[in-house]
Specification:
binds adenosine-5-diphosphoribose
Length: about 180
Protein backbone atom coordinates (compact mmCIF):
# COMPACT_ATOMS: atom_id res chain seq x y z
CA UNK A 1 0.00 0.00 0.00
CA UNK A 2 1.65 3.24 -1.02
CA UNK A 3 1.91 5.98 1.62
CA UNK A 4 0.08 9.29 1.41
CA UNK A 5 1.45 11.54 -1.37
CA UNK A 6 4.67 13.05 -0.17
CA UNK A 7 5.69 10.29 2.20
CA UNK A 8 6.91 8.21 -0.77
CA UNK A 9 9.06 11.20 -1.80
CA UNK A 10 10.53 11.40 1.70
CA UNK A 11 11.48 7.74 1.40
CA UNK A 12 14.09 8.89 -1.12
CA UNK A 13 15.79 11.05 1.53
CA UNK A 14 18.29 9.46 3.92
CA UNK A 15 20.31 11.02 6.76
CA UNK A 16 23.86 9.87 7.54
CA UNK A 17 26.42 10.97 10.13
CA UNK A 18 30.00 11.19 8.87
CA UNK A 19 32.38 12.65 6.29
CA UNK A 20 30.69 13.49 2.97
CA UNK A 21 33.95 12.96 1.03
CA UNK A 22 33.64 9.21 1.72
CA UNK A 23 30.23 8.91 0.07
CA UNK A 24 30.20 6.69 -3.02
CA UNK A 25 27.44 8.55 -4.87
CA UNK A 26 27.06 10.16 -8.30
CA UNK A 27 27.74 13.61 -6.82
CA UNK A 28 28.59 15.17 -3.49
CA UNK A 29 27.66 18.80 -2.93
CA UNK A 30 30.34 21.21 -1.70
CA UNK A 31 29.46 24.07 0.66
CA UNK A 32 31.03 26.61 -1.66
CA UNK A 33 31.48 30.37 -1.99
CA UNK A 34 30.76 32.35 -5.17
CA UNK A 35 34.49 32.50 -6.01
CA UNK A 36 34.61 28.65 -6.05
CA UNK A 37 37.72 28.83 -3.87
CA UNK A 38 37.91 25.66 -1.77
CA UNK A 39 38.63 26.85 1.79
CA UNK A 40 38.09 24.96 5.04
CA UNK A 41 35.17 22.77 6.26
CA UNK A 42 33.56 20.60 3.55
CA UNK A 43 35.56 22.39 0.86
CA UNK A 44 38.79 21.75 2.75
CA UNK A 45 38.04 18.04 3.02
CA UNK A 46 37.18 17.89 -0.69
CA UNK A 47 40.40 19.73 -1.57
CA UNK A 48 42.57 17.54 0.68
CA UNK A 49 41.07 14.19 -0.33
CA UNK A 50 39.98 14.99 -3.87
CA UNK A 51 43.29 16.47 -4.95
CA UNK A 52 44.19 19.58 -7.00
CA UNK A 53 42.10 18.79 -10.11
CA UNK A 54 38.88 19.99 -8.44
CA UNK A 55 40.19 23.49 -7.67
CA UNK A 56 41.66 23.63 -11.19
CA UNK A 57 38.22 22.90 -12.66
CA UNK A 58 36.66 25.50 -10.35
CA UNK A 59 39.23 28.09 -11.51
CA UNK A 60 38.51 27.23 -15.15
CA UNK A 61 34.78 27.62 -14.46
CA UNK A 62 35.22 31.01 -12.80
CA UNK A 63 33.04 32.67 -10.14
CA UNK A 64 29.27 32.07 -10.03
CA UNK A 65 26.47 34.41 -8.90
CA UNK A 66 25.26 34.04 -5.29
CA UNK A 67 22.87 31.09 -5.05
CA UNK A 68 24.17 29.38 -8.20
CA UNK A 69 25.83 25.95 -8.42
CA UNK A 70 28.64 24.65 -10.64
CA UNK A 71 29.47 21.01 -11.39
CA UNK A 72 33.02 19.62 -11.72
CA UNK A 73 34.70 16.24 -11.54
CA UNK A 74 35.49 14.83 -8.09
CA UNK A 75 39.20 14.03 -8.59
CA UNK A 76 40.31 11.17 -6.28
CA UNK A 77 37.01 11.03 -4.34
CA UNK A 78 34.68 7.97 -4.61
CA UNK A 79 31.94 10.26 -6.03
CA UNK A 80 31.86 10.95 -9.79
CA UNK A 81 31.02 14.65 -9.62
CA UNK A 82 31.25 17.53 -7.18
CA UNK A 83 28.51 20.16 -7.26
CA UNK A 84 29.60 23.50 -5.75
CA UNK A 85 26.62 25.18 -4.09
CA UNK A 86 27.53 28.86 -3.67
CA UNK A 87 25.33 29.82 -0.72
CA UNK A 88 27.63 32.69 0.31
CA UNK A 89 30.20 35.17 -0.96
CA UNK A 90 33.69 35.08 0.55
CA UNK A 91 33.62 36.73 3.97
CA UNK A 92 29.81 37.01 3.98
CA UNK A 93 27.10 34.82 5.54
CA UNK A 94 24.56 32.45 4.05
CA UNK A 95 20.96 33.68 3.98
CA UNK A 96 17.72 31.68 3.74
CA UNK A 97 17.31 32.84 0.13
CA UNK A 98 20.90 32.08 -0.96
CA UNK A 99 20.67 28.67 0.71
CA UNK A 100 17.36 27.88 -1.02
CA UNK A 101 18.71 28.98 -4.40
CA UNK A 102 22.00 27.10 -4.09
CA UNK A 103 20.22 23.87 -3.15
CA UNK A 104 17.68 24.26 -5.98
CA UNK A 105 20.47 24.93 -8.49
CA UNK A 106 22.54 22.01 -7.21
CA UNK A 107 19.57 19.72 -7.86
CA UNK A 108 19.22 21.17 -11.36
CA UNK A 109 22.93 20.46 -12.10
CA UNK A 110 22.32 16.85 -10.98
CA UNK A 111 19.15 16.58 -13.08
CA UNK A 112 20.94 17.96 -16.16
CA UNK A 113 23.47 15.15 -15.84
CA UNK A 114 20.77 12.52 -15.18
CA UNK A 115 22.34 11.65 -11.83
CA UNK A 116 20.59 9.10 -9.61
CA UNK A 117 22.06 9.75 -6.16
CA UNK A 118 23.52 12.83 -4.52
CA UNK A 119 24.81 13.76 -1.05
CA UNK A 120 24.39 17.17 0.61
CA UNK A 121 26.19 18.57 3.66
CA UNK A 122 24.49 21.06 5.98
CA UNK A 123 25.27 23.98 3.67
CA UNK A 124 25.94 27.35 5.33
CA UNK A 125 26.07 26.07 8.91
CA UNK A 126 29.83 26.29 9.44
CA UNK A 127 31.95 29.30 8.47
CA UNK A 128 28.85 30.91 6.93
CA UNK A 129 27.03 30.89 10.27
CA UNK A 130 23.54 29.73 9.27
CA UNK A 131 21.38 28.09 11.98
CA UNK A 132 21.36 24.28 11.75
CA UNK A 133 17.62 23.75 12.36
CA UNK A 134 16.57 26.39 9.82
CA UNK A 135 19.09 24.93 7.34
CA UNK A 136 17.49 21.49 7.74
CA UNK A 137 13.96 22.86 7.20
CA UNK A 138 14.96 24.82 4.10
CA UNK A 139 17.01 22.02 2.55
CA UNK A 140 14.29 19.39 3.10
CA UNK A 141 11.67 21.72 1.61
CA UNK A 142 13.68 22.42 -1.55
CA UNK A 143 14.63 18.77 -2.03
CA UNK A 144 11.04 17.53 -1.48
CA UNK A 145 9.80 20.13 -4.01
CA UNK A 146 12.37 18.97 -6.58
CA UNK A 147 11.51 15.30 -6.05
CA UNK A 148 7.80 16.10 -6.51
CA UNK A 149 8.53 17.81 -9.87
CA UNK A 150 9.98 14.59 -11.28
CA UNK A 151 13.72 13.96 -11.56
CA UNK A 152 16.11 11.07 -12.30
CA UNK A 153 17.28 11.43 -8.67
CA UNK A 154 16.36 8.33 -6.70
CA UNK A 155 18.28 9.01 -3.50
CA UNK A 156 19.24 12.22 -1.70
CA UNK A 157 21.60 11.79 1.27
CA UNK A 158 22.24 14.40 3.93
CA UNK A 159 25.62 13.75 5.52
CA UNK A 160 25.94 15.48 8.90
CA UNK A 161 29.25 16.04 10.64
CA UNK A 162 28.84 15.18 14.31
CA UNK A 163 26.07 14.02 16.62
CA UNK A 164 24.55 17.46 17.23
CA UNK A 165 24.03 18.23 13.54
CA UNK A 166 22.67 14.74 12.89
CA UNK A 167 20.18 14.98 15.76
CA UNK A 168 18.97 18.38 14.59
CA UNK A 169 18.40 17.17 11.04
CA UNK A 170 16.70 13.99 12.29
CA UNK A 171 14.32 16.03 14.48
CA UNK A 172 13.38 18.32 11.59
CA UNK A 173 12.94 15.35 9.26
CA UNK A 174 10.65 13.59 11.73
CA UNK A 175 8.43 16.65 12.06
CA UNK A 176 8.29 17.02 8.25
CA UNK A 177 7.28 13.35 7.90
CA UNK A 178 4.57 13.81 10.54
CA UNK A 179 3.22 16.93 8.78
CA UNK A 180 2.91 14.97 5.55
CA UNK A 181 1.08 12.08 7.19
CA UNK A 182 -1.56 14.16 8.94
CA UNK A 183 -4.72 14.30 6.78
CA UNK A 184 -6.08 17.69 5.76
N1 LIG B 1 31.56 16.12 5.77
C1 LIG B 1 30.32 16.58 6.05
N2 LIG B 1 30.07 17.76 6.66
C2 LIG B 1 31.16 18.51 7.01
C3 LIG B 1 32.49 18.10 6.74
C4 LIG B 1 32.66 16.85 6.09
N3 LIG B 1 33.88 16.38 5.79
N4 LIG B 1 33.33 19.09 7.20
C5 LIG B 1 32.56 20.04 7.74
N5 LIG B 1 31.25 19.70 7.65
C6 LIG B 1 30.07 20.44 8.11
C7 LIG B 1 30.32 21.54 9.09
O1 LIG B 1 30.41 21.02 10.42
C8 LIG B 1 29.07 22.40 8.89
O2 LIG B 1 27.99 21.89 9.66
O3 LIG B 1 29.50 21.10 6.97
C9 LIG B 1 28.74 22.23 7.41
C10 LIG B 1 29.10 23.43 6.53
O4 LIG B 1 30.27 24.02 7.02
P1 LIG B 1 31.37 24.69 6.04
O5 LIG B 1 32.06 23.65 5.29
O6 LIG B 1 32.16 25.64 6.88
O7 LIG B 1 30.53 25.50 4.96
P2 LIG B 1 29.76 26.88 5.04
O8 LIG B 1 29.34 27.21 6.42
O9 LIG B 1 28.71 26.77 3.96
O10 LIG B 1 30.88 27.95 4.62
C11 LIG B 1 31.40 27.87 3.33
O11 LIG B 1 33.63 27.93 4.15
O12 LIG B 1 35.32 26.45 3.87
C12 LIG B 1 34.79 27.60 3.39
O13 LIG B 1 35.39 27.53 1.08
C13 LIG B 1 34.30 27.44 1.98
O14 LIG B 1 34.00 29.79 1.67
C14 LIG B 1 33.33 28.57 1.90
C15 LIG B 1 32.71 28.60 3.30
Amino acid sequence: MSGTPGTDLLARIELRQGDITEMDVDAIVNAANTQLVLGAGVAGAIRRKGGPSIQRECDAHGPVPLGQAAITGAGELPARYCIHAASMSLGARTTAESLQDSVRNSLLRAKEKGLRCIAFPAIGTGVAGFPMDECARIMFEVVAEHLAEGTPLEKVYFVLYGEEAYRTFQREFDSLSKQRQEPG
